[in-house]
Amino acid sequence: MRNSSSTLEFLPTRFILVGIPGLEAEHIWISIPFCLMYMIIFLGNGTILHVIRTDTALHQPMYLFLAMLALAEVGVSASTLPTVIGVFLFGITEISFNACLLQMFSIHSFSIMESAVLLAMSVDRFVAIYNPLRYTAILTMPRIFGMASTVTARSFITLFPLPFLIQRLPICRSNVLSHSDCLHPDMMKLACADITINIVYGLFVLISTFGMDLLFIFLSYVLILRSVMAIASHGERLKALNTCVSHILAVLAFYVPMIGVSMVHRFGKNHVPCFIHVLLSNIYLFVPPVLNPLIYSAKTKEIRQAIICMFHRIKV
């Protein structure tokens, strides 16, 4: 703790997390849907990871990218689990400063990984439709491993400065966060110093990762549509487009809530009630990991058959 210019400034040893403002008395009931969502996330994504690992027929680029997506979603959910369950189920609202920094880094880095994997999956769909005969020759195991390494390295390197940018800020207004987990925009608002660097760097991360990924996903689908339109048979066109449906739904499930959160944070922070911010943030963190295993299980024949075979073996 230090005194500078008659302003009390300090780095708190703990932050206070908040569930849903105004519904504190109902947190025990609100914890039920959160627990159900975590069960779906870990069981759903865990099942997909298991069938891809054990079924050699699924050791193909498309399913390996799906395994990466499932790992990223499990990472995001595992990062939020301790505080979300702690706040809503057990009423534990305190988190240490360092633990908060670690959670912030984990949530944002796994989210960036998820975005990058969705981009890799769009490239996979383009190669499969544009040049199906050389699909496995182009997307070889070394290249897929290289893409996975690049995705991981980009997430870590891009977010590495973020905890240090928070640590340099004196926190003197409050140590109460407005969510049930630690997020960079929420933490930097508590500072009583100039946060321009944090804002600029946060915007840079947003544009250079999510923004660029979404742009390249869009361009990939422009090229996919051009390739599909070059196919003579109407039935083959539909078949080619049908292979993209699961990925399109996964992209929408990820980016629509994220854009909603960004818009409300940037333009509606003074007009939108606090619980709307919390609700949208939870939708952004929970909807993709919950929906994607269901989407791919329902829309991908090979995944569905592998899951059925797995349960049949368990039953036997």
UniProtKB/TrEMBL annotation:
Alphabetical UniProt keywords: Cell membrane, G-protein coupled receptor, Membrane, Olfaction, Receptor, Sensory transduction, Transducer, Transmembrane, Transmembrane helix
Keyword Transmembrane attached: yes
Annotated compartments: Cell membrane; Membrane
Membrane-spanning ranges: 28-52, 64-92, 104-123, 144-166, 199-224, 244-263, 275-295
One Pfam family cited in the UniProt record for this chain: 7tm_4
Record-annotated G-protein coupled receptors family 1 profile domain positions: 44-296
Bilayer topology: Multi-pass membrane protein
InterPro entries per UniProt: GPCR_Rhodpsn (IPR000276), GPCR_Rhodpsn_7TM (IPR017452), Olfact_rcpt (IPR000725), OR51/52/56-like (IPR050402)
Major site of localization recorded for this protein: membrane
Highest taxon of source: Eukaryota
UniProt family annotation: Belongs to the G-protein coupled receptor 1 family.
Functional summary from the UniProt entry: Putative odorant or sperm cell receptor.
PANTHER family: OLFACTORY RECEPTOR 51J1, OLFACTORY RECEPTOR 56B1-RELATED
The protein's name: Olfactory receptor
Protein source organism: Rangifer tarandus platyrhynchus
